[in-house]
Amino acid sequence: MGKWAGGVWNMVFVGDTNVPESHCGLDDTAPATTIEKTPIIVEKPYVVSDGNNGYSLMVPRLEIDKVGATPGFENADEVPFDQVYVASDSDSAETINGKLDEGLHLILQPGQYNLKDSIKVTKENTVVLGMGLATLISTSGKPCIEVDNVDGVRIAGILLQAGETDSDSLLKWGMSGGFNGSDSNPGVMQDVFARVGGTN
Predict the structure, then answer these.
(1) How far apart are CA 58 and CA 79, in angstroms?
(2) Structural domain of residue 28, as residue ranges?
(3) Number of domains making up the chain
(4) CA 123, CA 78: separation in Å to the nearest integer?
(5) Which of 12, 92, 107, 167 shows a CA-CA span of 20 to 30 A to 80?
(6) What is the pTM for the complete model shown?
(7) Which of 124, 132, 135 is nearest to 100 (CA)?
(8) Where does the pLDDT of residue 167 fall: very low under 50, low under 70, confident under 90, or very high at 90 and above?
(9) Are residues 25 and 89 in the same domain?
């Protein structure tokens, strides 16, 4: 960043440049905690247009000890849309799971997905990206999403909601004991929320 001035309580900077040194805020200095490098970071997947009515899914790569911003958004793998299924809220879990079984990534358009079964992610490096906080509703008590013992899965931009049948969980990650994941290719959840307070 260009620079930082002032602050309230404690400002935390991780992997930033041109920021104040760590200080408790006494002697008219900004209260700041500064960590030189971001130990591990994975940015959220996103969609880009090629300007000709075509789209790509961009999947940022894992970064270690990062300092500063990524210039030009260059640290991402580009996935053409023929490898992506764009779902609508009229799709059943069976339809969506069929597409995931084919090895496609999943983009969920905005809407309320009433799911009788779980969306099942069984292949490594699968991206499930909700647009407009797509809402997944469990209507049978099953989790909205189940992720198998596979590495590199990205789930982002979704809202989970319980239905009228009690659910033990709305998202289940890891289907049996002994799965610890990968340090070099971790599974990541970003902007995943759960609605509480009843079904109405």
Answers:
(1) 6
(2) 10-39
(3) 2
(4) 18
(5) 92
(6) 0.88
(7) 124
(8) confident
(9) no
